[in-house]
Write a structure and sequence with these properties.
The protein is an all-alpha fold and 77 residues long. It is built from two helices and no strands. The chain has one domain. The radius of gyration is 28 Å and the shape is elongated. The N and C termini lie far apart (63 Å).
Length: 77
């Protein structure tokens, strides 16, 4: 680098120019512009719970959400 200061300066200028170009060109923000209304959830029960007990609990949760007026647009798959 010490023997070729012009090349070193050229690489520095090119790096700064590329950084500025990418800063302007890359989309900003971590959140989407539009909310699509999708919510994902999960259930976790005791480790000693049987399949039948978890199935009954899942049905209770499902019915509770279906009967909630705030979840009126909720679609079940």
């Amino acid at each position: 680098m010490l023997r070729h200061p012009a090349i070193t300066l050229g690489v520095l200028v090119a790096t700064i120019a590329a950084t500025l170009w990418l800063f302007v060109g890359v989309p900003k923000g971590f959140f989407p512009e539009q909310d699509n209304g999708t919510i994902f959830g999960g259930m976790q029960g005791p480790q000693d719970s049987s399949f039948q007990a978890m199935q009954a609990a899942a049905l209770r949760v499902s019915e509770t959400i279906k009967n909630d007026p705030a979840a009126g647009l909720f679609t079940w798959r």
